[in-house]
Amino acid sequence: MGVGVGVVMMMLGIVICLATVAHAAQGTATYYGPPYTPSACYGNQDKGVMIAASSDAIGGKAACGRKYKVTCTGPTNQGVPRPCTGKSVVVTIVDYCPPGCQGTIDLSQAAFAMIADRKAGKVNIKFTR
User: What are the pLDDT digits (tens) for 21-41?
Assistant: First the structure.
């Protein structure tokens, strides 16, 4: 009987861990244009265009190499009332957005355009790792 309880507790712990990892965080996204090299994480290595720079809010320089699924959830201002495309994008952190960064995550221009109208400049997002 004690073994069964232990297994149940272990499974419950795994479920809680998985739920924590899959939990979507909220923030804002901005974008930056090319050239994307050199970058703080990879120097002159070209990592493509589905990339982003992390702010201190998501780990700063320690976030190098992490992948995030980012989805636009709405506008941050009245300029573009419905900026979201309804799509999500997966980006890899390749750079660092220094203190004063205007977004939680600074997407490449191409990645931002996948999820929102670039005219918005900054949008509310949800993101998961």
Answer: 457 899 999 999 999 999 999
